[in-house]
Structures are given as structure tokens and as C-alpha cells.
Write a structure and sequence with these properties.
Chain lengths: 274, 274
């Protein structure tokens, strides 16, 4: 086995951008072994020098040249880091250079603007959206449905809650969710409280085997988790959603991020909230 | 006023990585106006050609050369997009090239690996962590505290819930939260249920004016939202946390991402879960 290559995510702020880019790139090399270290809040020249020293030390201990993903903004700190000799992916350095060439004046190196509260409106709307998702979770808060951007429907444990919360955090969308239960299937048509909000409804479904597995983690050997129950509920839920023309996402092989992106895409195919 | 420059986030998958990098870079130019469009799921050559056409169209309509942040992985699709003539920030193209030079063999262009479920263990642990945060929210689920990585404490509306959820989604950490209420302050010392978990406690505080404002959005003109009440509760909560040696983060001017990153940093200064 080859030794793991050291990977550093270095930032003068939270390190979230550096980690996301870095991990996304590393995932393209599934056969390599990486040992990653996060160094956030590297916001002085001294700390940048210390970070560079840690990278050099990691290099000395394995024979592989470390990878560094950096979103440092200060030119002095960036130079100090570069001096470590590792393969430095200087994200701001490279792309900001390209952008400056086009815009015609240099950026204001204000660190951490993006993951901070620089745009208080967009920040507040994301926190409000999280509170909305909690207040309108699992069939609660029906009186808030007018304010909802999306109302997710699906059987119990089909992934509605994590999807609602993720869409709130990532996109600032107000997402309610409403469980489809055996009682709903006894009546024909949509539950009354959903009727006025048809256009906002999006459905989640998944394979019965997967649902049974998820439910068993909650209540093992219960009728609730039995494969027969899952199969039955899903069949009825899917029939209802089909009959009512509700767009449905199958979550069996999809992550919450993927489900959220698909649903957002189904709302407004091209225009992003900027 | 100068017209807004068109910005495109183009991806063959969710577009999350492209949006995060792009918005992070754009935030360094606070004086520019950008009009952004997300084009996720561009996963065929045909869709790449159509995306390129949309970029050209946007350019024709404003006089400014559009910016494109792309995480397309397919070489053919990347070439088709490049042909649009806009300033294309080809994130994979640039950095993967650097990494290949070092690793010595090309990546497997498997799209969307990072925001998918490719690592089922890490993915499941994040969803489990979200469920944990919900089950141990606001003083619930005390019997789960043994499993918690962190227990957040603070007065009502100090930001505990969004922080818990964010840490679960982003880092897969199990974060409980426990409200400090006037009843707690009447007894000396820590609430009994927190005693055995001292090392996991992290506090949140904020300016009384800010807290009063947040509480007023919930219950306007209530004693709960009165500045005096806020001042009083915060003073007592801070005294308690100080006396018990609980590390505290001030959330007044910090986003949830920043608070989460600071708390994670306080747990394990250097090593990231890789």
C-alpha cells in the first residue's frame, strides 16, 4: 500500500470554501489515499509561517509532496505559504487574477466575506428559512404554507426533513414538509390542507427495501418497518402523487444535496437568486 | 450605474461546488453588480452547447463579458463551453491538471462524486447527525448526551439550533443543545444533566440589543423580548459559563458558518476528519 499524501486546507477564515473545493477535487482520484488537515483562521503572517512549517513537517514524515488548498487573501501570507514548496492550489490567487484582468481593478481583500454576514439580507433570509423549516416540519405550521416556496410530501422517513433543512441553509428557500400517512390514502385526492398549494408540492420516494432499512433503525421489528408496510405505503403514495401531477424525486441513490438541487432546478430552471 | 455582469455557475451535477467557489470569488468585488444564473445537471454535450449559447446570448444583451464558473468534468463538454468566449473559470481543468502532474495518472472523471453518496459512511453519518441534532434540540434527548460531540448552551434565541444543524450537515458532528433559562440561574452551578459532560460544553452569547431584536421577531412587546430581560439573562448566563470554564463564542457579528467553524476548531485544533 502506498502511504497517504498529506492534504492541507488553509484559510484565513472558516476554511469552508477551501475544504469544499479541495475535497471535490480529491474525490476525482478515488484510488489515492489522502490524510487531510484543516487550518482555519490563519489570519496573521506568523500563523501563515507556522502553517507552512506544518506542511514541511508533513512532507518530511511521508515521502509524498503535500497538496495545499488555500483561500488565503493576504499577499504576504500567500507568499509565506508558497515558500513551503508543496503543491499549493492558490484558489484566490489564480482565479482572482483572471477576474481582475477583466474587471480592471484589484479586489478588496476582505477576508471571509462570503461565509460571513457581509450580505445581511441574504444571511438573515437563510436563518429565517431554517426557522421556517423547523416550524413547518412534519405537517406542523399549516398556516405558514402561504409563505412556503416548496412543500415536500412523502411517506414517513423518505428524507423530507433533511432535504427541507438543507434547502433552507444552502438556498434560503422556505420549505415545509407534510407526511403522507395511511390515513391520507383512505380519502380520495390530496389532503385538504395541501389543496390550495398544488404548484408548490414536490414528492419524495425511494425503494421499499431502502425505506424498510431506514425505518428499522428507528423501530426494529415493528410493523412500521416491515417491508410489506413500506411497499404498501410507497405504492399508495406514488399513485397519489402521480394522479395529482406532483413532480417526484427518487431519493434511493441520491444525497440530500442532489435531491435539493433537483428540486430547486424544478422550481426555476435557469435563474439563480443572486 | 454600470450594468450587471452576467455570471454563470455551470456543472454536470448539483452545481454546489461551482456556486460556492464562484460566490466566494465574486464577494471579493463588493462594488461590482453581478446577475447570476445557475445551470446544474449539464451532463451531455448537447446541454453544454446549449449552456454556451445562453452565455453568448447574455453577452449580446449586456456589453460586459460574462464570467463562467464551471465544474464540468467531461473534456468534450468543457471544450464546448470554452468556445463561448466568456471568461471561463474552469475549476477542474486548472487544478486537476496541477494534481495530475504530481500524482502521475489522470483522474476518473466520475461526475458529482463529492456531493453524491460516493462515501456512504460519511454521507450516512451526516444524515444521522442531522437526526441527532433534531432529537437533542432545545434540551430534548438528554439520554443521548453520551453520543454527543458537542453540547451547545446559551439563552433562548442565541443561535444554538441553526449552529447545531449546520455542524451536523457540514461536519457530521453530533451536536446537542441545551437552553439556559432563568430557572437554571436560581441554582448554583451547572444544570445536573450537563455535569457529566463538561468537556463537551460550548457556550453561545451575543449583544443584548441584538438578542432583544431577534426575540421581538417572535414575540413583539413581550417581557421575553424586553431589553432588560435580555441583558439580565445574558449577564447571568455569561457569569455561569465563565465560572464553569465553558469556552464561549460571541455570535453578534458572526454567521452560523463562522460560529460552527470556531467551535469545531476549539474541539480539535488541527486534524480534520478525512
Amino acid at each position: 500500500m502506498t502511504p497517504a499524501r498529506s492534504v492541507f486546507f488553509i484559510s484565513d477564515h472558516t476554511g469552508i470554501t477551501a475544504e469544499i473545493i479541495g475535497k471535490s477535487l480529491l474525490s476525482q482520484f478515488p484510488d489515492e489515499a489522502f490524510a487531510s488537515v484543516s487550518l482555519p483562521f490563519v489570519d496573521t503572517l506568523e500563523k501563515a509561517n507556522f502553517a507552512a512549517q506544518q506542511v514541511r513537517e508533513a512532507w518530511r514524515q511521508s515521502s509524498l509532496r503535500p497538496f495545499v488548498f488555500s483561500t488565503l487573501t493576504d499577499p504576504g501570507a500567500r507568499a509565506a505559504l508558497d515558500a513551503c514548496g508543496a503543491l499549493v492550489m492558490d484558489i484566490y490567487g489564480h482565479f482572482l487574477g483572471m477576474m481582475v484582468g477583466e474587471i480592471g481593478y484589484p479586489p478588496e481583500p476582505l477576508r471571509g466575506r462570503f461565509h460571513g454576514m457581509a450580505d445581511p439580507n441574504s444571511y438573515r433570509s437563510r436563518i429565517d428559512a431554517v426557522n421556517f423549516a423547523l416550524a413547518a416540519d412534519d405537517g406542523l405550521g399549516l398556516e405558514k404554507y402561504d409563505r412556503a416556496d416548496v412543500i415536500l410530501v412523502g411517506v414517513s422517513r423518505s428524507g423530507k426533513t433533511p432535504t427541507s433543512l438543507y434547502m433552507a441553509m444552502q438556498y434560503g428557500l422556505c420549505v415545509a414538509n407534510y407526511p403522507l400517512t395511511p390515513e391520507n390514502f383512505e380519502q380520495a385526492g390530496l389532503p385538504k390542507s395541501l389543496e390550495p398549494h398544488r404548484a408548490k408540492l414536490r414528492g419524495l420516494t425511494l425503494a421499499p427495501e431502502r425505506l424498510a432499512q431506514i425505518r428499522a433503525e428507528r423501530r426494529r421489528n415493528s410493523p412500521y418497518a416491515a417491508l410489506e408496510t413500506c411497499r404498501d405505503e410507497l405504492r399508495q403514495a406514488e399513485a397519489l402523487m402521480r394522479a395529482e401531477g406532483i413532480p417526484v424525486v427518487d431519493s434511493t441513490h441520491r444525497s440530500v444535496e442532489e435531491i435539493a438541487a433537483l428540486i430547486k432546478h424544478s422550481l426555476a430552471p435557469t435563474r439563480a437568486d443572486s
